[in-house]
Amino acid sequence: MDQTPPLPPEIAQGLGEFLEAARHSFGADLISAVLFGSAAEGRLRSLSDVNLLLLLKRFDRDRTDPVRDPFRTAHAAMRLDVMFLLESEIEPVMDAFAVKFADILTRRRVLFGPDPFADLVIPAEAIRRRTIQVLLNLMLRMRERYALVSLREEQLALVAADVAGPLRACAASILSLEGRPAASRREALAVILAEPGCPQGGDVVNLIDTVRREGSLPPGTAGPLMFSLMGLAAFMYQRISGASGKAAGGDRG
Fold first, then answer.
1. What is the pLDDT of residues 79-104, one digit of tens each?
2. Which of 20, 45, 86, 130 is the residue whose CA sits 20 to 30 A from 234?
C-alpha cells in the first residue's frame, strides 16, 4: 500500500489540469508522466518546484503549441517545471545527468502510463563522474552568488535554499557509491556533516530545513550558512574525487 502523503489539494488540481491538457495535446505521443522530487514523496515546501517528466515519442510543434498556455498557467500558479524527454533519449540522458536521474529513480510517482525507469540502473561510474561535475559547479556558483548578493541577507537565504537540494543529492550519491545508502537525501546530508573533517559551521541541517520551509533565515545566519555549504561542497568533492584540500579548499567562514 502506498504510504506517500497526498499532494496539497491545489497542487493536485493544478497538476491534474495540466496533465489532462498534455494528454489531449500530445495524444499517442505521450508515453508516461512521472512526478519526481519532493512532490513525489509528499514533502513540498514553500519554495519547492513541482517537477514533472513527460516521456514522449516525439516533440512535435503542432502537438506542443496547444500545451503552452496550460504550462505557463501551471508554472506561475505552482512552480511547475516539466522535463520533455524523448523515449530514445532515456539512456544517454541518464548517463549525462546521473545525479538527477539517480534521484528520480529514488523519488518518483507515475501519474500516467508505464513506469519508464522500473528496470533501469545508472552505472556507478556515471554517478561518480556527474557528482564531481555538480559539486564543482556548485562551488563556483556559491562563490559568485555570495559575492553578488550577500549584502542582502534575504537574497542570500534564497541562494542557500536553492543549492541545498543539489548538495543533498550529491551526499546521497556519495553514500550510495560507498554501499551505505541513506533513507532520504536529508539524512544523507546529515550523515556527511557528522563525519570527521567535515566543516560544521553551526546547525546546518536545521538551517537548511528552515530556509526551505520558510524562505528566510534568522538574522546573521545566511552568510555563515553559505560558507558552511561551500566548505561542505569542497569536502564532498575531495572525498569523491581524491583531490587534495589545496586543490578544492579555500572556503572558510
1. 999 999 999 999 999 999 999 999 99
2. 45
The whole-model pTM stands at 0.81
CA dist 31 → 88, 111, 194, 223, 237 (Å) = 12, 11, 43, 45, 37
User: How many Å apart are CA 133 and CA 140, to the nearest integer?
Assistant: 11
Q: Cβ–Cβ contacts within 10 Å for residue 250, how many?
A: 12
For residue range 111-159, what is the model confidence (pLDDT) as tens digits?
Answer: 999 999 999 999 999 999 999 999 999 999 999 999 999 999 999 999 9
- Rounded to whole angstroms, the Cα distance separating 6 from 191 reads 28
> Quick one: 128 exposed, middle or buried, by C-beta within 10 A (0-12, 13-18, 19+)?
middle
Q: Is 242 left (phi over 0), alpha (psi -120 to 50) or beta?
A: left
Write out the H or E segment, with its range, that includes residue 4: none
DSSP codes joined into one string, 182-250: -SSHHHHHHHHHTSTT----SSHHHHHHHHHHHS---TT-HHHHHHHHHHHHHHHHHHHH---HHHH--
